[in-house]
Amino acid sequence: MYKIQTLDRISAKGLDNFPRDDYEIASEIVKPDAILVRSHDMLSMELDPSVKAIARAGAGVNNIPFKELGQKGVVVFNTPGANANAVKELVMLSLLLASRPVIAANKWTNTLAGKGAEIAGLAEKGKKNFIGQELKGKTLGVIGLGAIGAMVANLGIEFGMNVIGYDPFLSVDAAWKLNSAIKHAETMDTLFAKADYITVHVPETPDTKGTISANTIKNMKNGVRIINIARGGLVNNEDVLAAIKSGKIACMVTDFAAEELLNNDNVICMPHLGASTPEAEDNCAVMAVQQLRDFLETGAIKNSVNFPKCKMDSEIPANGTRLCIAHKNVPNMIAQFTSVLGEAKLNISGMVDQNRNDIAYCLIDVDGKVDEATLEALNKKEGVINVRPIYA
Question: Which residue is catalytic, options 38, 225, 231, 322?
């Protein structure tokens, strides 16, 4: 029986994918095997040693100390792409809001209440104060062409925009998903110089923090419009406000409200609505649950932010054991594993070992049940972080 702790409200559609005969799910649970989380702050949370994995029902993991947990052998999963459509649609709405002052127009129109038959005429006269521009023919710059960025770029083409994308880490799979009309920028400065609209779709890291700041704004076109539905720290708010005041930036739409941004006619703030649709929450939960099940039941790792992708193609041998070994990415580890298993007279029927930076992960299938003494011998080897057996 696997024990799963939920730290936030998790979609029932996702939780229903846990077989209830094999899983116990609760918000308060003793010695959980894994944790499901959305936005709960885990940065200072003390975890029970029983926790083997954490799955975040969403893409960002800023609320999870995943690097430290990786050193302890705790696998942290996220769900990239599961909420991509919801975010893509909000980005496209943001592009329209940045182009047509419909919010201000709506507020003004509401002031006509009580004027009865005069409203239509007054509205017709007042519309000249709310002139916007069309997206068609304008240039959209997309920074980051992952699951969301690629969808935004493709939709920009459908809107009749010229689209430039920048992503120095663009994968072959991601490139195949891009419309052939999308131009590739060699540098961000190239994109900044040409774009009428700029939207950012990268994780917030020390390297990406302040992607939109005074140093980059100076390279942008006058009257540029900024969209940030990714992460708040990607934009330096004070620098953007200064650029708005000077006329360099026409408008910013952001999903990350802050005191300095409120009640500014050229800034539209939203309360982090990016993935706030029932469809996105369902998709993220289903994906997170499936990844936890695959890991707990077969040892497979996919979409981890701190461990390598790893999977055994074959089933666990009948009456056998699959060993899941997290270890340091240093020489001679495999030889140590095979030596211990050889001394225990256990036949190895399959093995795969993958690494990511300084952490590696090994799956070993053996014929027969691995006893506690052998597990202890493996755990004692220098460089081993933890060993988990899965019995057929």
Answer: 231
How many other C-beta atoms are found inside a 10 Å radius of the C-beta of residue 291? 22
Of 238, 260, 343, 376, which one is the catalytic site residue? 260
- In the block, which residue shows the tokens 């990350």? 256
**Active-site residue 118, yes or no?**
no
Of 40, 100, 184, 272, which is the active-site residue? 272
Q: Model pTM?
A: 0.80
Residue (of 293, 288, 317, 321) closest to 387 by Cα position: 321
Nearest residue to 308 via CA among 350, 351, 359: 359
Query: Is 260 a catalytic site residue?
Result: yes
- CB neighbours (10 Å) of residue 237? 20
Tell me which amino acid residue 245 is: K
Contacting residues for 280 by C-beta, under 8 A, at least 6 apart: 82, 83, 85, 86, 87
Residue 272 annotated to the active site: yes
> pLDDT per residue over 198-218, tens digit each?
999 998 889 999 999 999 999
Backbone phi, then psi, for 28, in 5-degree steps? Answer: -120, 115
Residues in contact with 222: Cβ distance below 8 Å, sequence separation at least 6, in sequence order: 247, 248
